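User: I'm curious whether this sequence folds into something compact or stays loose and floppy. Could you predict its structure so I can see for myself?
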Amino acid sequence: ANGNLTSISVGNEAFTYNAKNQTTSINGISMTYSGVDQSQRVQADGTSYVNAPFGISSQTNSSGATYYTRDNQGNLADERAPSGTFSYLFDGLGSIVGLTDSSGNLVGTERYQYDPFGNLLTNPVSPTLQSNIWRYTSGQFDSGTKLTKFGVRYDDPSVGRWTQQDPIGGSLFDPRSSNRYVYARCDPINVVDPSGRDALGCLLAGAYTIGTVLLAVGGLIGVLAAFSLLPPPWDLAGGFGALFVYVGSLTFAVGATIREYQNCFG
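Assistant: Here's the prediction. I'll summarize afterward.
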């Protein structure tokens, strides 16, 4: 199964996949996609989706069509459903905690509450809150499967792990990322993963690699120049060595900055 979860004994859950590693069914609920990965799902459990560059722009099911408004960063703002227009309320991690109607009134008497890994601790009775698909860290909640879709993968909050491996892979500089199944490096209080993959991991590895090479070359040139072991005009190469060390250090700083970004935004 190429590392893809195929079954869960508790609840007798079953998963199937196609040759592209796309999840084609979960517990008999079929799914189809546009493209080579799972980022653009177009149909699931009788609901059709229209995808835009920043995410789903609308969905249509037996109740009608719902349209979603996003800002220029892709963050959700509101929805226009058959029952009315509603705006989202967020917490610090970007999870939807409630909705307000067009008059600014809170929908229902309850709000969504989650445990650290996204399991719903409350069950709002309002039909509008129950039908809302955006939940934990603004991921797409599937009521039929109880999974949350983030970009290219599905997360099972009951066990705090993905149903598939991270397509990017881990980083040698962050042991927490070596397990390609755990959600948010097992630190969901501080880390989110809206894309389902660690897209900055390659940039980080490249920054550290370049920094290492530059520091090594610069250090070697500096040592040879200090002991007058380089012939003219390379006897003046100490300045180049210092420059390489400086650039290498700067590259390491960039890598560290990327790592801190990852620690916050996965």
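Summary: DSSP finds three helices and 15 strands in the chain. Residues 199-205, 260-266 have pLDDT under 50 and may be disordered.
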